[in-house]
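From: lab user (bench 3)
To: helpdesk
Subject: output format question, protein + arginine

Hello, I'm new to running complex predictions and I'm not sure whether the block I got back is the full result or only part of it. Here's what I submitted:
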Amino acid sequence: MIAGCACRPQSLLTMLSVSHRLSERLQLALDLCFPEQAAAARAAGRPLDPQLVAASKPEFGDFQANGALALAKPLGLKPRAIAEQIAACLQADPAFTALCLEPEIAGPGFLNLRLRPEALAAEVAARLADPRLGVPLAGIAATLDSAAPEGEASGEAGPVAPAEPVIVDFSSPNIAKEMHVGHLRSTIIGDALARVLEFRGHQVLRLNHVGDWGTQFGMLITHLKQVAPQALTTADAVDLGDLVAFYRQAKARFDADEAFQITAREEVVRLQSGDPVSRRAWQLLCEQSRREFQAIYDRLDIRLTERGESFYNPYLEAVVADLDTSGLLVLDEGAQCVFLEGVSGKEGKPLPVIVQKSDGGFNYATTDLAAIRYRFAAPPAGDGARRVIYVTDAGQASHFAGVFQVARRAGWIPEEARLEHVPFGLVQGEDGKKLKTRSGDTVRLKDLLDEAVERCEADLRRRLAEEGRAESEEFIRHVATTVGLAAVKYADLSSNRTTNYQFSFDRMLALQGNTAPYLLYAVVRIAGIVRKGGDGVETNIQGRQPLAASTAESVSLHFSEPQEWALVRQLLDFDAVIAAVEDELLPNRLCAYLFELSQVFNRFYDQVPVLKAPPTARDSRLALCRLTADTLKVGLGLLGIATLERM
Ligand code: ARG
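Helpdesk reply: Thanks, we reran it on our side. This is the complete output you should expect:
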């Protein structure tokens, strides 16, 4: 069942706390079986690795330990003989036998491990009592990953609060320009990644790197001074739509008129040197855009800290100086450049990253270099980040590759730190071309969100009429808004972000298939079953008090049907899926998991009686329903999607 699910990445662990305990047992078995080699390996800083992974097929059990194969050579023994010794050790370990049935040796020396049914049921009970649904805090996972020696990574170890933040640079539209669908994708994907990282216990800095600096302001201010001076002195004198139009006119003049170009350049210099009139004009323009952006963020429930390009202005000179000191800077045709290693352009010529143009001006790349330097620098001079993630369209991949390489060679990236570009494909219309309105204009985000909500409302009214249900206007508005926005977000998140994405209202709003309406409906239905079952516990995970430890222990669950076990295993995979999203930054993995969970649940509910089952089976099955509803709610919440009680 589980092996057939595309959601568990190969070789990843499942049930993190269980695999953590198993790892410890295996480590101990290795120490007992091969004391000298284990001690030597540990002294060399590379402890013997039992290579515990999720079973590759359900017939093999839940886990397999593949370590015997790699140990054959150093130990001078046949892998099967090693596996037999480890198995014997494990069987003599009560902590192991409490968790697993007798290990089986397969093939050349794989150790197949099957969890005891009671251990699985206990894990379900533990998750029911845990608002985090078994997802460990990142600090614990870190010790798990490095297979720390006995004692250090015991289950009781408190979470290690990471002092260094993870930065997610997302959304990042440009001032005086309209936020477009590419920015919407970045906003939705970036927010989901930030939520997952936060849930894992990281301190996340959500940075909006807005384009609020540079030559465009010279053009715009010069043009506005002539045609709409009130925009530069009075707040809200023009709206963003007008500003965008003014910006277009300014750009056209800049390209055609040399005198205008000169004035615009002088204006940039004035702005950058802090001239109060220019500054005030610039601030007004930024505020205007900011308000428009904020309206979108509020609607989508997105939190962001604005730290635009202008923030890094005071650090640009130091970037160039630093690169010069490290000997990376080359003067090429008047521009200060760093030539990239391993990348060449036309005719095999090495490609440069230009950090200072021949006119002395800085550019997008310089600002990003300053940003990287600042983000990794230790506080108070910087953010002291451990991981920096950029969510932009794939078109910027070479920009980031270049900038990352320069930053690395300049020595600004600490050794353990991660610096990642999270690219996504283009948003296309159903015709596979760039998304446009019927009249051929670019789609405004506000209109796009409005349409999703309006269509949802129409669908809902139709459904209510068909079912002869009467609902208040407030209910209809709330459901339509929630489902409409969820549909837009989910459609984006559920496709693999690296490919182009075809925007289709019909598809995203469908009640069937891997869509938000389908999943929201599943939550309502399953929560309804639990309510009917009347176990007296609300399924609202946010409001639920974790059961006291003693209560959790006293909840004894019994499962017997294969459909129950299939659902148990799917439920218990949640923590590993979250850890995978944290690592690979692919929200579609979580979407695929949630969809698969709802499918596995349907098979269970179709084929196994719940409410009409005999008392013990009924309680255990209701518990599965409740954990399914909770897992769907928490999972959708991590995607930035709110759930409904009724719809
Ligand atoms: N403002 C840029 C754009 O609209 C995106 C900025 C992304 N972040 C960054 N640090 N470069 O394309």
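A quick orientation on your result: The pocket of arginine is lined by residues 169, 172-174, 209, 211, 368, 371, 390, 392 (CB under 6 Å). Let us know if anything else is unclear.
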